[in-house]
Specification:
9% strand; four-stranded mixed β-sheet; 3 domains; 12 strands; 20 helices; alpha+beta; 53% helix
Length: 541
Amino acid sequence: MSSTISPTDDSPTPDRTRPEVGTFSEHGPWIVDPDDMPWLIGLDRVRDATRRAVPSLIGSRRLPPLGRLATTVRHLGGAIAAWWLVERRREGPGTSGSKSGLSRRVREAAEILGPTYIKLAQIISAGEGVFPDELVTEFQKCRDQVAPEPFDTVLATIRSELGRPPEEVFSHIEPTALAAASIAQVHRATLLTGEEVVIKVQRSTVGRRVGRDLRVLAWLAPFLVGRIPVSALANPPALVELFAETITEELDFRLEAQNLLDVARVLEELDQTDWVIPRPHPDLVSPRMLVMEKVEGFAFNDVAAMKEAGIDTHRVVRNVMISFLESATLHGVFHGDFHGGNLFVRPDGKVALLDFGITGRMDEFRRRAFLRMMMSAIANDTRGQMAALRDLGALPRDADIDQVIADLGLEDPIVDPTSMDQEQLLAEMQRVVKAMLGYGARMPKTLMLYVKNMIFLSSMIGHLAPDIDLIAEVQSIAMHFAMTHGQQIARDSGMVVDADSIDMTGIKASMGLEADVESLTWAELRARRELIIKRMGEGRR
């Protein structure tokens, strides 16, 4: 089909007189009115049903589809076998070279196996600090190596979702994809009424393939426990469960559009006006198609262009950090997939946020637990932090908090890891990992998304504000919460947060710093981390 689509009728001019709720652009192509969006009807029930389906999807002990199982075992098993015969023997188990070899071979297998496995690799690729550096670095290649579907296939999906020919809605659809990922791809387009938009279109076979692949992964995961030389993947069944919770919601773009509206509303209620969220179209949203307002900006690491435009990059960092923490702790809803392709800085200094397929959502019980976890960290209350982690699902409900604290040495004097030799570092890491696995610790979805975002924000600081004093910044943010939200925090957490209750000892300890350290820039923190990694690598050789 030609890339230019001829209009066949005139559509009514959008009503732009009604007020909106959300941090949208000032002069958008249409008004966001949730009461006038038919695709929102009954969507909460759809979300609940999607969540309830996950346990049955990954919990069956029956054999998964045998053809897909054989294909998966052939590629993944072949990758692991080749690594065992080559890199493991040549480099030695546990070395950086050995992990790099395994990561490369698994990444190549994932690309052959298709969208589900590529998506899993992409999620892991954003987990710097959660997953090993070798795995993250290798899997980052999956972000930009997903070939788009043919344009005719894309048009067929759009036609199916619209229930009518695309030319009755769009005057033009750009044949070349603006971006292509494992679940969907994005195309620029123009509506008959002249508005420039982007269309997110789901890949034609991904819905069918994800269900089969999840059954295969869930069946294989128990056999991999203790057999993967990567500590962050020591609990493959838990990782599969986390992945299933994430990807099943991504398959219905109506849920993503609802996420978009909810995050925009939360940011406005928090008076965080330095954000721009793209408007979803009032009518053109369906399970496999999402039409949105087009928003653009500078890439988050394009510091030179931002400086030339007169943008205060320190302000950008501070606003993003505060907005993210406020959304999570006070509303329990937050964008769960910060990365360079989803976050742009506009010439006016506002931050444009895209791709809401992965969004953190907490019920009231977990939101309050998350709030207690954050406030306990500010108050240096170790027991409060661990109890909150238990309530978030990171520890079993019957976990003995005092015993966990004692076993992990969480209240022992802080030892600067840069002062430890390689043997001491490795022994300490092995002790902590073994103890956590012994307690049945796991990484719940909300906590995983929070950690991933914080890691991205760390890299953002490195690009936009490398000279910022991290300790002073954390103190400033803590004071902002105390002064702006003190009453709600006291009501929701039972904790009084004021200037006297802020104790940076625990925050410093999480960075591996002793209590008497007064300042630390991002560049200094990175140098410390690189020294620790170097010593650990020396210890493995």
